[in-house]
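Intended use. Records like the one below are meant for learning the mapping from a protein sequence to its folded structure. Do not use them to infer anything beyond what is encoded.
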Amino acid sequence: MAEFTHFNSQGDAVMVDVSEKAETKREAIATGKITMSKECFEKIQNHEMGKGDVLGVARVAGIMGAKRTSELIPLCHVLLLTKVEIDFMLHEEDLSISAFCTVKTTGKTGVEMEALTGVNIALLTIYDMCKAVDKKMEITGIHLCRKTGGKSGEFVW
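Structure written out for the chain above:
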């Protein structure tokens, strides 16, 4: 079992010391999905939601969320992100929207948490902007798809 690095020898929670690690190019991609009613899906697809451009606002919110991860998740390092991108894929067959968040940096620690946070915030923003039409929306399947860089190398789901 891997050593837990967020605890010191007394069992206290600590931020991992990365000062001796080498800087490498790092990238992480995370995804998740929101499922909704046909009416809600069509309003998003046709840009007819009363609150405005749902996916445009969700994209900006996801980017902002990724940038603020260290303020939301205890013990995360503050990172200089070099890229945050949010993409969406609409699936008519099951009335869902997939969100993808890609995050890049050159640094001493990875960007998995930033990618996962970006996806969550993007999907929560869709929910917030559409809840007047459909309160039964369901957010599922949030996970890390891929990460590269660092000592542990590449991970692919």
